[in-house]
Amino acid sequence: MELVRTISEVRERIRQARAGGRTVGFVPTMGYLHDGHVALIEAARRAGHYTVVSIFVNPLQFGPQEDYERYPRDLERDARICRQAGVDLVFAPSVEEMYPAGRSRTFVEVTELTDGLCGRFRPGHFRGVATVVTKLFHIVQPDVAYFGQKDAQQVRVIQQMVADLDFPVQIEVVPTVREPDGLAMSSRNSYLSPEERRAATVLYRALKAAEALVAAGERDAERVRDAMRRTVEAEPLARLQYAEVVDWQSLRPVDTLRSETLLALAVYIGQTRLIDNLLLRVDDPPYGSSGSAHFQIRTGAEDLAIYARSQHHGM
Ligand code: AMP
Q: Tell me, what DSSP letter sits at residue 189?
């Protein structure tokens, strides 16, 4: 494994890999790596790619009141994890390497998909993400890039950007990796005190409560949203920022759950803002004389086929 800090070195290594007949798989990260990042790396490795990981805490995607300065950084540890995971190349540029003028005068902005969810509370965030991912794609020129379902809105924004602007890259989405108690792995979990860490399971509990309702046949989005809200409100250390039930394609709130529906949450645990989501595949049930509805629920990590009694849910 090699670690390089400049764009020209990346270009040179990629040129050599391609000359050797390799395809390129790319995993963009902000570092402080955990098993969620490793799952992305392993997906790239499994596909046989020359695997490139970028580690860059991108100032452009942080708001002025956000945690850019205190975001955890440990390049030595990250390099060790990458080496163990079989990464070929780590690109860890300085801010000056990425933004020589100290800022960018050019931005990539994905509209509509960024209006709601995190976009509503983090103005400019997805513009920063889309801009830096564009730069990284131009630097690395990957065949395939890997993103985590954990950041569901980011996935949709990148998919849309790639489609709209004809980036010659395939986007692969990797299921959310969780701690044994359900907490989605995140570099920001390192901010949590032991007490907050225990409370942080509330996000997963809220999503599972909502999922259980859907599995029991509930299709009214407001009731599903309420189940998430109530679970979070019962946790004293938690403060809900949003609990939404949205269509996976448009990311717009739905009234009735159907096809691919995203349950998404942002919750403050003390000063730490955490997000999580579940993507449910709710097949329109074939209501027949049997009175039973078959629908599939896809959670982050597994596919579940669920059979539920059909009830009166306005469907
Ligand atoms: P970050 O370093 O937090 O910007 O994340 C880099 C990439 O890793 C993004 O595509 C994230 O969605 C993904 N990622 C972060 N946490 C997880 C997780 N728990 N499971 C799967 N992917 C993750």
A: G
